[in-house]
Structures are given as structure tokens and as C-alpha cells.
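Problem statement: downstream parser choked on a complex file, so we are re-checking the raw output for the beta-D-fucofuranose run. The parser issue turned out to be on our end (a line-ending mismatch), but while we're here, posting the original submission so the record is complete.
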Amino acid sequence: FKGVEIEQAQAEQEDLIVVGVSQLGSESDWRSAHTLSIRDALTKDAGYFLIWNNARQMQENQIKAIRGFISQRVDYIVFAPVVETGWETVLREAKDAHIPVIIIDRMVDVEDDSLYTTWIGTDAQEEGKRAGRWLERYLRKNGRTLEEINIVVLQGTIGSTAEIGRSRGFQNIAGYHDNWHILEQTTGDFTATRGKEVMRDMLRRHGDIDVLVSQNDDMTMGAIEAMQEAGVSYGEYGEVTVISFDAIYDALLLIKKGEINVDIECNPVQGAYIDNVIQRLEKGEPVGKSYIVDENVFTKENVEKFLDGRTY
Ligand code: GYE
């Protein structure tokens, strides 16, 4: 840590704002885009000195990183929590040290919301509902409203906001349809490798899957490989309808090819919001308690016009 301390001392002299960032991991393409967006916004030119920590999807690493930021006396802590629970103690330590905490991407579940300053993220429950509503419309259009529909769900990291919200939102809509059967929900931890393994097992266990709901594109890519290897057809012309989340560039290409039926966007471009919040706090201006970024739904009908100029 010595090197960082010397640099940090220099940064303070140069009047840079010192920000400790605890990124939860590098599990997905979405995460890479999220990281890039933060790094692009909080540059030295913009007046920031970043201390970056990648927690590799482990809460204990995040807690350790945040404690480190507190003892280094950073000006702000920015962190994307891997799961929702278990943050009270460390957030209280930050509060006692008078260091503002900006939570990004996923949310924390704490009773006392004065433990953080602001949250910038996406509405995961709404994303889940959008998936369900799309399926309702799709089945109606294809005259399948009364058919028995077998669904499997590849879930993200259990206990993360993205998993909780997307699961609940989709289940909420599924609850209105007695003929929708969620055969299984299993986590693939938001990675392509696990997504592939879990899908391979689900295909072995269930012979008649109509719909795959995969809570991020990386797992979807893995699941697609598993379906190809098992000789199961999927997508627009296949047996298994594919619903995915995130809408990264490579997934949009698969929509165009008809391999993914629909992708519910989750917007990783949050860097400018963080910069904005910090700048307001620096001037002593009030900030909102939460900021929700805009999101879209992509299908073959509209994907073309978004492909150009897409940055992630
Ligand atoms: O959907 C997934 C990533 O928390 C919204 O985390 C984020 C999710 C995103 O690993 O790809």
C-alpha cells in the first residue's frame, strides 16, 4: 500500500478528489462496460484520483477494501455491492468517519438509509416484469396463450439486486398465468461458463423446455452453446424461446440473427452520474437519494437502429 499512500498524498496536494472504488468483480461484459464508464468519467483531468479494488465477487473482499478506504481517509467511497445484505457494520464505520458513500449498480438492504448518501442504479424488478410482459405479448401474437408453457430460469448471483429483482419481477407476471410453469430456477452466477454448465444440466433434466429466461447475456451465450451441443433449437425459429438481460453489443447481434428473442436492457453507463453527484456534494448542493438510469427493450423489430454507435 506504500506506493498508493505516496500517490494519494500527492493527489491531495494537487487538490484531486480521492475516490475509493470497490467494484464487485469482472464476471460479465456488462461489468466491463460499467467499469469503463466509471474510469472514463472519474479521470485525473476531471479532478479525480481513483483507488480501485476488484472484489472478485466476494463480499469479504469488498468489506476489506472499504475498511482500507476508510483508514486511507479517502474523500468518497463508491461501491457496487455484490449482494444486498450484510453491509450495516462497515457502512456505519464509513459514516462515523464522515466519508460519503455512493452506492452504484446493485442496492444494499439496510434499515437505516442514512448509511449511504446516494444510490445510482437500475430497476431490476421492472426489468423482470418487462421480460414477463414481453412473453405475454409474444405468446398472444403466436396464438399460444392457452398452451402449457415450460420455463427454466438461469439466475444471477443469488442475493444480488439484479437476481432478486429480475426473479421477482418475472414471477410476478408469471403469477397471472396458470399455464406458465417455472420448472427450475438455478444460478449461473452471471458467468458464461456457469451458464453453460447449468443449462446443460437443465436440458438433461427437462425434455420439454419452451422458454429460457437468462438473467444476463453472458449466461445466455453459455446456454446457447449448451443448446447447440445438445442439438436443441432455439430463438426465433427454434423450440426454446430465449429471453435475456443486459443487451450488450454481442447480444444485440444475436437478436439480429434471431438467436435471442428479446433482450431487456440494463444500462451500465453510470460514470457520468457518479461524477455529477460528487460535483454537487463538493459544492454543498443537495443530491437525490436514488438515480435510476434509462433502459430499453430490444427485439428484432427495433435492434437495427441501436446497433450503430452502441458503446457497450
Ligand atoms: O446484469 C450482470 C452483471 O448488477 C446489473 O451484474 C448488474 C448485473 C448485470 O454481472 O451482467
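For whoever reads this later: The mean pLDDT is 96.
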